[in-house]
Design goal:
The complex is a heterodimer of chains A (288) and B (576).
Chain A: H1 22-34, E1 38-42, H2 46-51, E2 56-57, E3 63-65, H3 71-84, E4 91-97, H4 99-103, H5 106-115, E5 120-125, H6 160-165, E6 171-176, H7 180-192, E7 198-203, H8 207-210, H9 217-226, E8 232-236, E9 240-245, H10 252-257, H11 267-285
Parallel strand pairs in A: 1-3, 1-4, 4-5, 5-7, 6-7
Antiparallel strand pairs in A: 6-8, 8-9
Helix pairs in contact in A: 1-7, 3-5
Chain B: H1 2-7, E1 15-16, E2 28-32, H2 38-42, H3 49-57, H4 61-69, H5 75-81, H6 85-89, H7 101-115, E3 129-133, H8 137-149, E4 152-157, H9 165-168, H10 177-188, E5 193-196, H11 205-211, E6 214-217, E7 223-224, E8 237-239, H12 240-248, E9 258-262, H13 266-277, E10 281-285, H14 297-305, E11 309-311, E12 314-321, E13 327-336, E14 347-349, E15 355-359, E16 361-364, E17 368-369, E18 381-382, E19 385-386, E20 399-401, H15 412-431, H16 447-462, E21 486-487, E22 501-502, H17 506-514, H18 527-530, E23 537-539, E24 547-549, H19 559-563, E25 569-573
Parallel strand pairs in B: 3-4, 3-6, 4-5, 6-20, 8-16, 9-10, 9-16, 10-11
Antiparallel strand pairs in B: 2-25, 7-17, 12-13, 13-14, 13-15, 18-19, 21-22, 23-24
Helix pairs in contact in B: 3-4, 3-17, 4-7, 5-7, 7-17, 8-15, 12-13, 13-14
Classes of the chains: A alpha/beta (288), B alpha/beta (576).
The structure holds flavin-adenine dinucleotide (FAD), thiamine diphosphate (TPP), iron/sulfur cluster (SF4) and magnesium ion (MG).
The site of iron/sulfur cluster (SF4) has 15 residues of chain B, from α2 and α3.
Chain lengths: 288, 576
């Protein structure tokens, strides 16, 4: 088995992501799939760091750094301005972190989706406010350590994919960096299905924030899928569900074992997480 | 222009990050490096198993066979007789079962015979002549490898047909003669001069040395070990190899109804199988318990399935005449003394466990030694073997030796591997080769020790450490059921000497070749390229390994190492 991914050279070497960063890997396949006729909107996040440092850019396209609240609104504005100029070809994509999507930028995203703005919105979900020092976000999963949940988070992860599905947008997908061909395919599909907001949430392990070795990002990403923590699927128009990669009977404990943010877990905690994951999967599996 | 420049606000981008040398962050850099596979490491012939299995997987059977015969000229034979340590070493054992390498080897060997593929012609024609004495696997292998290099080779054997134990020992039902004959013929066709039916002795050495630039002896171990309890010169008591030789010549002796085979090794099981097929009732008496028999589990199981009875952990004390011209064996159960040093067997009698066995024929299969009485004047011996140094040279300059007469490993694969390495050493000796000549101060070693050392040396210099299962990224290898060769049902075996193991058909061979991880050998799958977040690996088909690691960008994260399915990328530490 080997991957076949068509890449156009948009994302540059020499960027300042940590060694082994899965977010940089995700950006590679997003930008190199979308190609040079693209404008990106990036709010404060690791993505902004990776795109810098000013005045140098790692992205060979125009990039607008918005506020943390307004990426979807900014992207929608840029797209409308292009349309007003008669440009019907340039893709506009917002690439934001989970803090900027699940929490701070949520209202502008939800309203852009509701208005049917012709943009792609990709959330690179590393399950916390990572570039400011690993604080919790509403994407942080149950029991995970962050600097603001030192005893482990007491509430479950917000289900962003299902929230966006409920907006009945043309296309929604979950993806992750351990499956690069799947990620690239979904980005290309989002680019094709114009006429509304297309949303992708990609799980990107954060080496430092999750406490994993530099080389283990892709492996942890795959374990998230194989354990059922993060199934990979697509939804068209809010109703047509397709499963791409589902759980493979891998215990959630195999996934958490590789991450220091879970090292305080007791056997009971593990059981709790397993139940939560099983429950989420049972609920989702009905939709395929 | 200065106007336009002045209008660009300072927050605008003026260039790209690829001018930054983020490679300076690292303390180790990725390198594509071939590493040894455990199958190869375990193979006494050093037969590049991952390479030919891969060629097979890619549909290039001819190329696969050519790789195979670059090391071993007898793949159809070895595919049937080898104890396949490669499979024991195979990394897939830790996953879903070893790759059935031996069956694949047989498959390619048989295909080559069927398709009449020829061995590649010698690289050159050289003047030097080498005499090879003994055409068992060691002699055939050495003659072949010398001939491939272009030496003129004369191959002497005492028997009318070549093959040694393969021809006159291993029974037809394990190794059909026509398979051996086809592979031997191909070697001879390279231009080896064969002198069959002529036994040479140490007295012939001066003449050989006059006519040949070097001499290689590999006349095997043909003299049966005897047991003092048994009468000598009694036609009811015979040696295992002598019996098998008669069977192989289609001139089997009268055995009578009751046959006792003494011994628990491979030869004993072959003797039992043949005696069963000749219609006798067969009991095998071994000193070791069943679990500790020197024969492989498969050989024992086959003998028992075919109808032999095993009387294990037993020893024969005395032999007497019994009624009806039979022999009566007084036996005792025995336990092995755990205090015995490794390799030695110290039986302890179990008091009161006496029993008797009656036999028309007793066949002793308790080992063979080389016949060296004649040779001890000419070469130095080491115990019951000819002593050789690490370059397979005996104490007599220009006289080389390998195979059963110089090694107590007694395996076809070892004989072929040592024959191959000896050919290399002979070539070096004759051509003043690059390799070290045997040094006077080098302590003489047995062939086995010598082999181990040359293997280890070559490996350490050319490749990184052997790939372990933990280096394999199993995500890329869905589990696939292992399959071995099927066998003819036991009830159908006892009537004739038809081959009992059934070779793979093309579909099954392809399926099993698919299972190989290709440990340590890049297959250009592009994982290293795709998983680099820094795009520090570029593809360049003009490079031997296709990929180039860009020094200025590799941050040393190790993702390419982790994502290489097969351990073909390593990390090289760098100190700054
Ligand atoms: C019955 C039996 C079954 C075996 N089965 C297996 C098996 O399944 N798998 C395995 O790995 N190993 C097996 N072995 C061991 C293996 O066959 C030997 O280790 C191997 O054959 C040794 O090869 P060789 O070339 O050193 O000697 P041999 O095969 O013994 O060949 C020596 C050759 O020298 C010739 N010769 C002898 N004396 C002279 C002389 N004076 N002049 C000229 N020529 C002479 C002989 O005719 C013979 O052809 C078996 C051994 C026996 C006895
Ligand atoms: C309104 C607002 N609040 C806080 C910040 C400070 N801030 C900058 S980046 C960031 C973290 C964003 O986290 P996330 O979106 O998950 O991206 P990550 O760093 O994890 O990639 C924060 C809190 C800000 N820029 N704006
Ligand atoms: S998987 Fe293939 S290369 Fe690896 S040890 Fe087994 S046969 Fe050899
Ligand atoms: Mg985040």
């Amino acid at each position: 088995m080997s991957y076949q991914i068509e890449e156009q050279k948009v994302f540059n070497s020499g960027h300042s992501a940590c060694p082994g960063c899965s977010e940089a890997l995700a950006i590679r396949f997003i930008l190199n799939t979308l190609g040079p006729d693209t404008i990106a909107v990036v709010p404060p996040s690791c993505i902004a760091i990776i795109s810098g440092p000013q005045p140098l850019s790692s992205m060979r396209i125009p990039v607008y750094q918005s506020t943390l609240e307004s990426s979807a609104a900014s992207a929608a504005g840029i797209k409308r301005a292009l349309t007003a100029q008669g440009n019907d070809h340039t893709t506009v994509v917002a690439i934001a972190g989970d803090g900027g999507t699940y929490d701070i930028g949520f209202q502008s995203l939800s309203s852009a989706a509701e208005r049917g703005e012709d943009i792609i919105y990709i959330c690179l979900d590393n399950e916390g406010y990572m570039n400011t020092g690993s604080q919790k976000s509403s994407a942080t999963p149950s029991l995970a350590y962050t600097t603001s949940t030192p005893a482990g988070k007491g509430t479950p992860k917000k289900n962003m994919a299902e929230i966006m599905a409920a907006h009945d947008i043309p296309y929604l997908a979950t993806a992750t960096t351990g499956y690069p061909e799947d990620l690239a395919r979904k980005v290309a599909k989002a680019q094709r299905l114009t006429g509304g907001l297309r949303f992708i949430v990609a799980l990107v392990p954060c080496l430092d924030g999750w406490g994993i070795p530099d080389s283990a990002g892709p492996k942890v990403s795959r374990l998230a899928v194989e354990s059922g923590v993060f199934p990979l699927y697509e939804v068209e128009n809010g109703v047509n569900y397709t499963l791409n990669f589902g759980p493979k009977d891998v215990p959630v404990a195999d996934y958490t074992a590789l991450q220091k943010r879970y090292r305080h877990l007791t056997a009971k905690d593990q059981e709790f997480l397993q139940k939560e994951v099983d429950g989420n999967w049972a609920r989702l599996a009905k939709k395929f | 222009m200065s106007d336009a420049k002045a209008r660009i606000p300072s927050i605008w981008t003026t260039g790209w990050t690829d001018q930054l040398r983020t490679g300076t962050w690292r303390n180790a850099v990725a390198v594509h490096k071939k590493r040894g596979a455990p199958c190869h490491g375990a193979c006494p012939v050093e037969g590049e198993i991952p390479l030919w299995v891969r060629q097979m997987r890619e549909g290039d059977s001819l190329g696969a066979w050519q790789t195979l015969v670059a090391h071993n000229p007898l793949p159809a034979v070895v595919g049937r007789t080898c104890h396949h340590p490669c499979e024991t070493g195979c990394n897939r054992n830790d996953y879903d079962g070893a790759v059935s390498i031996n069956a694949l080897e047989q498959y390619l060997g048989d295909l080559a015979i069927q398709e009449d593929w020829a061995l590649p012609a010698p690289e050159a024609e050289l003047e030097s002549r080498v005499a090879v004495v003994g055409a068992g696997p060691a002699g055939l292998s050495c003659a072949y490898h010398l001939r491939r290099r272009g030496f003129r080779v004369a191959l002497y054997d005492a028997n009318p047909e070549l093959g040694g134990v393969l021809r006159y020992g291993v029974p037809e039902y394990r190794l059909p003669r026509k398979v051996l004959a086809a592979e031997v013929k191909r070697i001879v066709a390279l231009g080896v001069e064969v002198v069959a039916g002529r036994a040479l002795s140490a007295r012939d050495l001066p003449e050989l040395e006059e006519n040949f630039a070097a001499v290689f002896i590999a006349f095997g171990a043909q003299a049966p070990k005897m047991l003092p309890q048994f009468p000598r010169d009694d036609r009811r008591v015979m040696g295992g190899l002598a019996f098998l030789r008669l069977v192989a010549k289609a001139d089997p002796p009268e055995l009578g109804a009751e046959v006792l085979v003494i011994g628990g090794g491979s030869v004993a099981m072959d003797v039992a199988g043949c005696a069963l097929r000749l219609g006798s009732r067969v009991r095998v008496v071994s000193l070791e318990s069943r679990e500790a028999l020197p024969a492989t589990a498969e050989e024992v199981e086959d003998a028992l399935l075919e109808g032999a009875t095993l009387i294990d952990a037993a020893m024969v004390k005395e032999v007497e005449e019994a009624q009806g011209g039979r022999l009566k064996l007084r036996c005792l159960k025995a336990e092995l003394d755990p205090a015995a040093p490794a390799g030695a067997i110290w039986p302890l009698e179990v008091a009161g466990s006496d029993f008797e066995l009656l036999a028309d024929t007793v066949i002793l299969a308790v080992g063979q030694d080389p016949e060296l009485a004649d040779w001890q004047e000419s070469v130095e011996l080491q115990g019951r073997l000819v002593k050789v140094d690490r370059r397979f040279m005996t104490s007599r300059p220009g006289l080389f030796a390998a195979g059963d007469l110089a090694s107590d490993q007694r395996l076809v694969s070892v004989a072929i591997g040592d024959g191959k390495r000896a050919a290399g050493c002979i070539a070096d000796y004759l051509q003043g080769g690059k390799r070290d000549r045997p040094k006077a101060e080098t302590e003489a070693k047995t062939a086995a020790e010598a082999t181990e050392e040359t293997n280890a040396e070559a490996e350490a210099e050319a490749e990184g450490p052997e790939v372990a299962f933990s280096d394999i990224n199993t995500f890329y290898f869905p589990k696939k059921e292992p399959r071995q060769r099927e066998k003819v049902a036991a009830c159908e075996r006892s009537s004739d000497f038809r081959e009992i193991k059934l070779g793979f058909n093309p579909a099954r061979a392809a399926l099993q070749a698919e299972r190989c991880f290709s440990c340590g050998a890049c297959t250009k799958c592009d994982n290293c390229f795709y998983f680099c977040p820094d795009m520090a690996i570029v593809k360049d088909p003009s490079l031997p390994l296709q990929y180039q690691v860009l020094d200025q960008y590799c941050k040393g994260c190790g993702c390419c190492l982790a994502e290489c399915p097969r351990g073909a990328v390593s990390a090289k530490e760098e100190s700054k």
